[in-house]
Design goal:
The structure holds two protein chains of two kinds. Chain A is α+β, with helices and mostly antiparallel strands. Chain A contains 20 helices and twelve strands. The longest helix of chain A is centred in the middle third of the chain and has 29 residues. Chain B has a five-stranded mixed sheet. Chain B has a two-stranded antiparallel sheet with strand order 1-3. Chain B has a two-stranded antiparallel sheet with strand order 2-13. The longest helix of chain B is centred in the N-terminal third of the chain and has 12 residues. The chains are: A alpha+beta, B alpha+beta. At the A-B interface, α4, α11, β10, β11 and β12 of A face β1, β3, β6, β7 and α5 of B. Chain B: GO terms for molecular function: NADH dehydrogenase (quinone) (non-electrogenic) activity; NADH dehydrogenase (ubiquinone) activity; quinone binding. Chain B: It is found in: Cell membrane. Chain B: NDH-1 is composed of 14 different subunits. Subunits NuoB, C, D, E, F, and G constitute the peripheral sector of the complex.
Amino acid sequence: MTYSGQHDPTFVGSRADDGAEYLDSVGTGDLYAGGDEFADSVDSGAVYTAGGGDWDQIVKDVATLGAERIVVNMGPQHPSTHGVLRLVLELDGETVREARAGIGFLHTGIEKNMEYRTFVQGTTFCTRMDYLTPIFNEAAYCLAVEKLLGITDQIPQRASDIRVLMMELNRIGSHLICLATGGMELGATTIMTVGFRERERILRFFEAVSGLRMNHAYVRPGGVAQDVLPEHLDQLESELPALRRGIREIELLLLENPVFKGRTVDVGHLSLTGCMALGVTGPILRSTGLPHDLRKSDPYCGYETYDFDVVTRQDADAYGRVVIRLDEIWQSLRIAEQAIARLRASQGEPVMVADRKIAWPAQLSVGADGQGNSLDHIREIMGESMESLIHHFKLVTEGFRVPPGQAYAAIESPKGELGVHLVSDGGTRPYRAHFRDPSFHNLQAASALAEGGLVADVIVAVASIDPVMGGVDR
Amino acid sequence: MTTTGPETPDKTPPSQTTTRDEANQPSQTEEQVVDTTTAQAGAAVVPAGAGEPTVVAHRTGMFGGSLGGDTSGYGGLDVPVLFPGASERPYGSYFDEVVDALQAAAPEAFAAGVERVVVDRGELTLVVRREQLRALVAALRDDARLRFEVISGVSGVHWPQQTGAELHAVYHFVSITHGTRRVRLDVSCPDEDPRVPSIVDIYPGNDWHERETFDMFGIVFEGHPGLTRILMPDDWAGHPQRKDYPLGGVPVEYHGATIPAPDQRRSYK
């Protein structure tokens, strides 16, 4: 196969001169490259010839191409790129000389949309950003709203405990997907099925509590949308032993698997210096040995009262990040058990801030026909109190006003620091909501992780970042 | 309450007091806008009055959209948007330490570049001039007493009514060494000259954030190694996060009734 017709001769980059001469001497035999009949329509476009040629010529071509760098476009539709990520790789044989990530294919303008909805409606938008960590997006956003409102210390303890429980379960779910898809990208489909199966246990609990498996809009400014009932906790606790067995199964499948270790050990190396320079956080940073975790260093939602460890590894490679994620799952289970115990003890306490000018007027409840507004609330606003109806109407359609100013709230998402920069102009809608998504930030390190390695290791390196394009592109 | 007569725009509506103002006169705050937001190279720093809030915009009316006449009587509402003004020492928490260290590490840049130090909602904000941004940022990273190793990116904010400072670039920094300290730098530039120096060579992690802010707001980060669009297609026209850029959307019809697109609806704002 030959390549010709590109008008800019420098396009072929570092192709060896002898190769170019060889191609010139052979001649492309292209019938259309110089033809006048296409001069108008093609107009300096590249002409590709994928014609035959005998075996000798193919061998010579391969010898020529072997001496040159080729540019390979990987994605955006590729099963190993973790979503619609485009990687432009410059290859020297099998070695990656340059890697560049192209993003934006999943940009949906969520931040812009949030400026046209009330502060409460914002949760339904931001939950869709990184769709594997919806609770974290909501929690970070709500913490920023609460900071602007100045009600951070008025959030009921039970609401914070519910947030912690949901976030830690969500962390397990996100890590399971990371391991599952990462395994699938290496060809280990069993990891994938086990990972998704175990995550489903967590999603069933989310569905019971919030009504939705994903995109919950469950964490709301001032608290959470709905209380966690004892039967929900019973359901979760009945699933936990099976979840533990499943996680152990993944550990047994992965950790001492010689193929897996061969693919991941010493692959995707990024030192502490590199992490600091690029501002990388999350498991990648902890795989260099630095125990930086916002849950410990800058606690929120009462994390300082929970007993857990920050997991680190020293090897700074893809294997270390897998081990960190597995260990963090166990730590999350530890936190979740403490949260369950607290929620059992605090049953019946409020889950929404006491200020009725901020708190959503109705809690949801489960009726015979599914989930909806609580019947008591409907009875009150429709049959008993006109003022309640007005209050409900004003709060739901207009929303609450947030004093002008700006705030930045950051939490430790499964992928690193998830920050929200929220600006209010005193109205009922965010003037500007910006999400510093850890996937977006950490994906900048893809070049540093991939360059100099083999092309097959690009997959491993990108998988060890665990980027979710919904969060990258927002 | 019966229906009100013709609109009386000159009448001060009662809901003006709902914003967090400290009973300051609008005429004073107008002057302050000129003082604090006009970025001129080499101009003497005029310290804003401590504690006086800064007017960043005016909100008029009560409802968004302009379809049909506003018969609510709130059409003449004009509420200044008051951001917290400069704070007075002691700032509290670690903020004094950070400000002192920055002043010691980059004295000239601090004197010429820091317009205001604002402590609000437990966060430290330095409003700085773009000419001194790089010197201040380099000190933030390199000085041992500051050591803000990690950048949390730059975010843009568009305030169309702030003449001479329409576009803001807001940086957040974290210091892991000093126990997750945070500081925010707020840099502004006029719409006619939307240039802010790039800090990618100091903080390589800011690369994509600057590209995103350029893409979304049109702020040109001078010195960026490859300032191209990152989220929108390369041939896109306009910068979507600016306030004069429409959200878009189509009216939805259902059972004969039509609901306008979200940015055209008559709704509260």
